[in-house]
Amino acid sequence: MNKLLFALGVSALSPIALAKPIITTSIKPVSMVVAAIAGDKAEIQQIVSSTASPHDFAMRPSDLKKILNADVVVWVGESLERFLEKPLENAGKENSSIEWLALEGMSLHNFAKEHHHDDEGEAEEGHHDDHEAHEDHDHEAHGDHDEHEGHHHDGVDPHVWLSPDNARVLAKAVTARLVSLDAANAEYYNGNLASFEKGLSAKDAEIRSALNKVNSVPYIVFHDGYSYFEQHYGLSHAGEITVSPERKPGAKKVAEIRHEIEEHNVQCVFSEPQFSPAIVKTLLDGTDVNTTPLDPLGAQVKMGTNAYLSFLDSLSGQFLSCLG
């Protein structure tokens, strides 16, 4: 009987003893990097579904619960996920969250300095809130911060997960936080970080070699969100359909893109699976220009410790399939 009682006692206590850190993530690319470090020692709860876009996402009560239950929230930042600002503040999780854009060592791109083709009069029509008129803000490597309040990245391209170098920065920050939350598994997390960095270096070199064969082929993307990937691998971005994926381009912009396709001998116009491809079909009607979906969120990538590497592989494959 004593053994039975002891067994029941252990069984009752085991959920507490075996409780894993809960990491709430904003979008799938964040989850990919977190998963590389967390492995099976932490639980990941993602807010934005893998088939949705953070650009027009609306929070639900179940999403708020994920924030409240989290040991740490990992997100890109308010430039992309403004819907998270108030919930994080209300839950008292703002200062303890990991905001990717604000981490020390990040290399950030300013939209004002990027290549746009909007200066013929339609620039303001399609701009997203986070793209607007902030030319004077310097967004080169940021320091880490404890105070999130008032810390903004207006004008910065928030699609930082498309840079392998920035992924390394987040992986290190996640490792440090998991070690502090779960010191018993510190060796496991640090080992995962070492494996991730080694695998990332190899995958990065492999992709660079493959894309070097098509880096002079001009193309147009659906929305201007690929600058980190494009600059890292030296690709020939010739324009974008819109700077803001939730707003359709006007007639003037459509005519402008058609002109760019002819002038730059564009070989491919990419669509995105998160948005209707109808505008792309309209643009390419009567042309022999290639088109294929380019997925910046990796909706079809299987989650796991190698998910981020698979994501980079998938994205580079999408470029190659249309440009090669």
UniProtKB/TrEMBL annotation:
Gene3D superfamilies: Nitrogenase molybdenum iron protein domain
Pfam families hit by this protein: ZnuA (PF01297)
Main location: periplasm
UniProt keyword Signal, yes or no: yes
Subcellular localization(s) per the UniProt record: Periplasm
SUPFAM superfamilies in the cross-refs: Helical backbone' metal receptor
Keywords noted in UniProt: Disulfide bond, Ion transport, Metal-binding, Periplasm, Signal, Transport, Zinc, Zinc transport
Biased composition (Basic and acidic residues): 114-157
Signal peptide start-end: 1-19
InterPro entries the UniProt entry points to: Bact_metal-bind_prot9, ZnuA, ZnuA-like
Region (Disordered) residue spans: 114-160
Keyword Metal-binding found: yes
NCBIfam families linked to this entry: PRK09545.1
Function of the protein: Part of the ATP-binding cassette (ABC) transport system ZnuABC involved in zinc import. Binds zinc with high affinity and specificity and delivers it to the membrane permease for translocation into the cytoplasm.
PANTHER family in UniProt: HIGH-AFFINITY ZINC UPTAKE SYSTEM PROTEIN ZNUA (PTHR42953:SF3), HIGH-AFFINITY ZINC UPTAKE SYSTEM PROTEIN ZNUA-RELATED (PTHR42953)
Family: Belongs to the bacterial solute-binding protein 9 family.
Name of the protein described by the UniProt record: High-affinity zinc uptake system protein ZnuA
Organism: Marinomonas pontica
Gene name tied to this protein: znuA
